[in-house]
Amino acid sequence: MSDLLIELFSEEIPARMQAKAADDLRRLMTDGMVEAGLTYAGAAAFATPRRLTLAVEGLTTESPTLREERKGPRTDAPEKALAGFLRSTGLTKEQLEVRDDKKGQVYFAVVEKPGRAAADIVAEVLEKAIRTFPWPKSMRWGTGTLRWVRPLHSILAILSDEEGAQVVPLDVDGIASGDTTHGHRFMAPDVIKVTSFEDYAAKLKRAFVILDPQERADLIHAEATNMAFAQGLEIVEDKGLLAEVAGLVEWPVPLMGPIGEQFLELPPEVLQTSMKEHQKFFSVRDPATGKIVKYVTVANRQTTDNGATILAGNSKVLTARLSDAKFFWENDLQTVRERGLEGMAAPLANVTFHNKLGSQAERIERIAALAREIAPLVGADADMAEQAAKIAKADLSSEMVYEFPELQGLMGRYYAEAAGLPQPVANAAQLHYSPLGPSDDVPTEPVSVAVALADKLDTLTGFWAIDEKPTGSKDPYALRRAALGVIRLVLGSEVRTDLSEVLLTHGREILAIKSKLDSAYEAEVIAGAAQEKLLEAQTEVLATASGANKEKLKQIAVNLSAQYNDAQQNHSLLLNKANEASQSACCIPPLLLEFFADRLKVHLRGEGIRHDVIDAALPENWDGDIVLLVNRVRALQSFLDTEDGANLLAAYTRASNIVKAEEGKDGVEYSLDPNPDLAENDSEKALFAALDAADPQIDAALKAEDFAAAMGAIAALRSSLDTYFEATLINSENQIIRRNRLCLLNRIRNLFARIADFAKLDG
Amino acid sequence: MTAHLATDRPRSFQEIILRLQSYWAGKGCAIMQPYDMEVGAGTFHPATTLRSLGSNHWAAAYVQPSRRPTDGRYGENPNRLQHYYQYQVLIKPSPPNLQDLYLGSLRAIGIDMDLHDIRFVEDDWESPTLGAWGLGWEVWCDGMEVSQFTYFQQVGGHDCKPVSGELTYGLERLAMYVLGVDHVMDMPYNDPDAMIPLSYGDVFKQTEQEYSRWNFDIADTDVLLRHFEEAEAECARILDAADDDPKTGQRIVMAHPAYDQCIKASHIFNLLDARGVISVTERQAYIGRVRTLAKACADAFVRTTAGGFAA
After folding, report:
1. Would you say the CATH fold of B219-301 matches that of B2-213?
2. Which of A120, A402, B195, B238 has the fewest CB atoms below 10 angstroms from its CB?
3. Segments of A320-477 assigned E as strands
4. Is residue A596 within 8 Å of residue A464, measured between CB atoms?
5. Structure confidence at residue A59 as a pLDDT band (50, 70, 90)
6. Does the domain at residues B219-301 carry the CATH identifier 1.10.40.30?
């Protein structure tokens, strides 16, 4: 057994690529070595800005010898056959063995593939890994053709055991492997010779390099937290930033610095975003006030002045950056003061939302109308919902959001508050984008819910209207997320609504049928007026004119007539267009509802609800009432989870299969009401009685939308059904009895169908 | 090293430039002079754009006055100018120790590596107008970007073989940092103890005002639009000419004169942009037109001797 250490030392690797690269190196090497016949006990990979490192423990020293036997031709076979066999095995006749076989003496070739030394295999696999490494972006440098993320400088590759360490010989485009590396770029740049992973990690640490990114991140987090705590402050947690910063340094030294007084009035999120985006600083908060008061930057080195120069430089850059942010903030507030939020939103009339769906301003108008319509359903004040929708996107034309797009919504809330708008309206500016992902909170304040729903429904209807639906992995407008958002908003606020109606109305709106109808109507009026004028003119001409004048006037009449025809044609064209649009508007709701149903399946999968249960519970012409559907689905799922449920499903399937089979055979439908008087045995009579009892119960339960009760009523049928099937032969010799029994089974089938389409359930 | 810091620090803007010049000259670069045309960045100098093409080796360093009309602030903004200087180094093929050479240049202008935090932060460079891109970093000194460091992969649509290493220093910003100045106009241009000490403002405040006004409000857009089209047409016409010159009987491909027209078109586009007469959609179209010229010039250059063409 030996241990393998590999280090690929390069110029600075982008932070965002390091973790995956370390993992890729581990995967490519271990897969390749195992494929070549080696085994190992464990492997770990690490990355710093300048190196990818892999440590493999307990690697076998060589791959096993492989012995292969091949049967050749009989010894008395023609020379040609033997020659072919020798060629294919690469052996001479003398090297073959002659063995006795059933059919006589036969040549055998025994080929031994000797095992290969680990070093040879490692060298081969490593070279291939380097040449085919899956960097997201790679480059060439100097005169070479080798590609790496940035110039690759050295390859350290050693196999070590109790005897010592040996370099795995390897040369990739002039970069020869060795047993040396370098420490920190500035603090310990000299060559370091290593003999094992432990030796390597320890020597690197002495040379100011912490190899393990997790260790660097932990260190940054601990020191930053301590420094803040010592001053009664706290770090604003940011895991993504922590990982990124840990990828920018080999020797992390957190330093805490002040934020100029003049910036402390900026919203904390603005400070945080500006510092994070531009400078990769952590924000430090005063827990008493919630304000960001300091920052932590992470330097890549210690200095004799304990970071004073570094901190001074960083503070200076921060001041310049925050001056910009303050400038944007003050300009935006001035706009709000002078022109209000609607004034701030005015430029959105010139911003295209989508070239087929008009400008942002037009979209906002539609959302406002829709929010107003939805408001009563979610218990929101209609005026407030409309007002909120009108200003919710105003911040998209603020300077701050132009600079920091990720602050959209949040700045809207600040600016709405500054404008003195009611708090629910201001909150909606921020919350109407929610929920953004499956883990994002769903707004509950009615005004926010109304605008959030209107926003998403407008997006969905719009893109369905122009036929830009998500396909496969492509969903550039995040329509799946929008649909999931609608589902979660509806379920969160228990909105009972016929979505299809809302979608249809809104679809019509979007397709601007109204305006097209209007123009068609206008054209008709114009055509009508033209016709009247024409008739008048004709009469007048014929009555008054004579000679040449008459000819000239006739010509004018002909021209007018042509114009009239044009107008009429135009009219029918517009009418056609309007009809077409009206028809496509009608297509939107069913297609979109299907999409919602699909999204619902994904959403409910988390609760352990199966796809087929949703399919079964989905009515044929679903109206889009998500709350009702989900209640039905949940009741059905819990019913199926009981023993009664599973058993009844089996009974249903049996009844349904028999009816289907017999209907198929006889070519008729057994859909008549079964006659209880034809019941022959007690179990049959009992089943009739049970069905008669269940019917009104199910009616009442469905009316009350109490699906659990409806399922309970069905569950009560279990024993009657079981007994019936045990005691009764459906296909009786007596045709009248047989038909009646088939109709009885059909009645059972229909009863089940009132609750769900049980045929769609898997087994 | 810390000990001589006090005396080792440059005292003026021009001293930083002189030190960079002598440093890179000492490393074997040909010190070129600025290109005598209006350009947006040092990369446009033919010593970079054209010389990064083809197989011939090359090493050049130079100051390039650069103009970005939209960045004009009438000399009021502490660090934004419509006319500023870039220091540009291009070495082909990129030497293996280019990072060390670069760090040496920072030491040469008085940045003490023992006190400062230098970082190479991912920043991939792309010039849509030149049809060029490369991978590299922006170099941070204590959180401030002081240079761009790029390994050219493609220029004018051609793969760079060998690859050039390009360094670009924003001179004003770098100098302000080294000299500890907060407003560019306050920066000493020559030595503060000179017979007649001049600040950056003494030299450039007025021109910033004049050009800001002209760029934003006065430049005749009709004339500019016409010049753009003329430059575009002239570039194509030059490249259409036969390789063989009937007068001298020599093969003379006119890559450089054609490229001048490309530079001209590019700068006129920047001026039109500053005048606000180019819409978002037109913008892409104009950039595409300049790129077409750049590519045609690159195609021509690789057919010249300097571009590695062997008859």
Report:
1. no
2. B195
3. 352-354, 358-359
4. no
5. very high
6. no
- Name residue A719's amino acid: S
Buried b / exposed e over A265-277, threshold 16 CB at 10 Å, is ebbbbbbbbbbbe
Domain spans of chain B, in order of start = 2-213, 219-301
Angle, helices A499-510 vs A513-544, to 10°: value is 50
pLDDT per residue as tens digits for the range A449-493? 999 999 998 888 888 777 788 888 888 888 999 988 988 888 887
Tokens of B266: 């590019």
* Residue A541, pLDDT score: 65
Q: Is A139 on the interface with B (CB under 8 A)?
A: yes
- Partners of A68 in the beta sheet? A111
Closest-approach residue (CA) in chain B for A307: B115
DSSP secondary structure letters along A650-709: HHHHHHHHHHHHHHHHHTS---SPPPGGG--SHHHHHHHHHHHHHHHHHHHHHHTT-HHH
User: What is the pLDDT, as a whole number, of residue B246?
Assistant: 96
Q: What rounded mean pLDDT belongs to chain B?
A: 93
**pLDDT tens digits for range A385-403:** 999 999 999 999 898 998 8
What's the fold here for domain A2-62+117-206? Alpha-Beta Plaits (3.30.70)
Which one-letter amino acid corresponds to residue B57? Answer: H
| DSSP letter, residue A495 | -
How high is the pLDDT of residue B4? 39
pLDDT at res. A513 = 40
- Return the CATH number of A334-510, one of 1.10.3210, 3.10.620, 1.10.10, 3.30.750: 1.10.3210
- Ramachandran class of A674: left when φ > 0, alpha when ψ lies in -120 to 50, beta otherwise: beta
A174 shares contact with chain B (CB less than 8 Å): no
Query: What does the alpha-carbon distance between residue B108 and residue A618 come to, in Å, rounded to a whole number?
Result: 75
Is A316–B124 a contact, with Cβ atoms under 8 angstroms apart? no
Q: With CA atoms as reference, report the closest residue to B219 among B268, B177, B182.
A: B268
CB B87 within 8 A of CB B146: no
In chain A, which among 39-98 make CB contacts under 8 A with chain B?
49
Structure tokens at B203: 């030299």
Burial class (CB in 10 A: 0-12, 13-18, 19+), A663: middle
Do residue A304 and residue B2 have CB atoms under 8 angstroms apart? yes
> How large is the ipTM?
0.93
Q: Which is it for strands B83-92 and B165-170: parallel, antiparallel or unpaired?
A: antiparallel
Q: Are A574 and A519 in contact (CB under 8 A)?
A: yes
The CATH number corresponding to A626-760 among 1.20.1070, 1.10.150, 3.40.50, 1.10.730 equals 1.10.730
pLDDT band at B77 (very low <50, low <70, confident <90, very high): confident
Contact A141/B119, CB-based, under 8 Å?
Answer: no
Domain covering B2-213 in this structure, CATH number: 3.30.930.10
User: Residue B21's pLDDT is what?
Assistant: 98
Per residue in B218-270, pLDDT (tens digit) is 999 999 999 999 999 999 999 999 999 999 999 999 999 999 999 999 999 99
**A 530-559: CB under 8 A from B:** none
Rounded Cα distance between B174 and A752, Å, is 80
